[in-house]
Design a protein that fits this description.
It comes from Myroides pelagicus. The structure is a single chain. The protein is mostly beta strands. It has one domain: Jelly Rolls (Sandwich), CATH 2.60.120. About 0% of the residues lie in helices and about 50% in strands. The protein has no helices and 22 strands. A hairpin with a 4-residue loop joins strand 7 and strand 8. The chain is globular, with a radius of gyration of 17 Å. It starts with a strand and ends in an 8-residue tail after the last strand.
């Protein structure tokens, strides 16, 4: 049986660009770690803090599913397929880059930093038509329970992407327990503790710690203090085009 993969918050890569402070779970830009290139189709998990009035200038992407989850503050989004909008805390944004898309993300506030998760997944097929979506999440839907915020199905809860992946959020009160059964047998589970602390798989995890679980179909976790959790249920096998 494969061991679970524990990534502590203080072991992540870190880059300080002045206007941007970014923690990298997996190899990204100047952070190179051959043991942390990806977890299944999860390629990037960046924890970014953008200074007031600053941001990412227009740049291209292709053939990647890109998910942004603001944790505090706002981001101003513009892209080459005609979207221009503000992404706020409590929302989720996705881009299917497909055949190619250019976009920019800026913090529109002059005095408040913006913190968000930037997540990339390898898509299950190449060269799809680029698309963009964002929705507002209801925090009441995740109080001591899982709230699905992303799936492969346009008719299901949350946004959808070109990958057999499901994301869920939960806000747990201290001592509350949650169970989760993965959606696909060959998927793995990646849990990222946004705030607080939990106990799972005989392991204590604190703020920004993570665990990758490969060979269990069901998990149980408990909050050792009030906790906010992101769970990613994702394919472990890379798509054929990467083999």
């Amino acid at each position: 049986m494969k061991n679970n993969i524990i990534i502590r918050a203080n072991s992540r890569g870190y880059a300080d660009h002045g206007w941007l402070k970014s923690y990298h779970t997996f190899s990204f830009a100047n952070y190179k770690n051959e043991d942390r290139v990806h977890f299944g189709v999860l390629r990037v998990l960046n924890d970014d803090l953008v200074a007031p009035g600053m941001g990412f200038g227009t740049h291209p992407h292709d053939n990647m599913e890109i998910i942004s989850i603001p944790l505090s503050g706002e981001l101003s989004h513009k892209d080459s397929i005609g979207n221009g909008t503000i992404i706020k805390t409590g929302e989720i944004q996705i881009m299917s880059a497909g055949t190619g898309i250019n976009h920019s993300e800026f913090n529109p506030n002059d005095d408040v930093p913006s913190q968000f998760l930037q997540i990339w997944l390898f898509p299950n097929k190449l060269n799809v038509k680029p698309r963009y979506d964002q929705i507002t999440l209801n925090p009441e839907n995740r109080l001591n329970k899982w709230d699905q915020i992303l799936s492969p199905n346009p008719d299901d809860n949350g946004v959808w992407i070109h990958q057999d992946a499901w994301f869920s959020l939960a806000d747990l009160d201290k001592d509350k327990q949650l169970e989760y059964t993965k959606k696909e047998k060959n998927n793995g589970l990646y849990l990222f503790v946004l705030e607080g602390s939990i106990f799972i798989e005989n392991t204590s995890l604190g703020r920004r710690d993570a665990i990758g679980i490969i060979e269990k179909d069901e998990i149980t976790l408990s909050a050792t203090e009030n906790a906010k959790i992101l769970l990613m249920d994702i394919p472990m096998e890379l798509p054929d085009y990467l083999k």
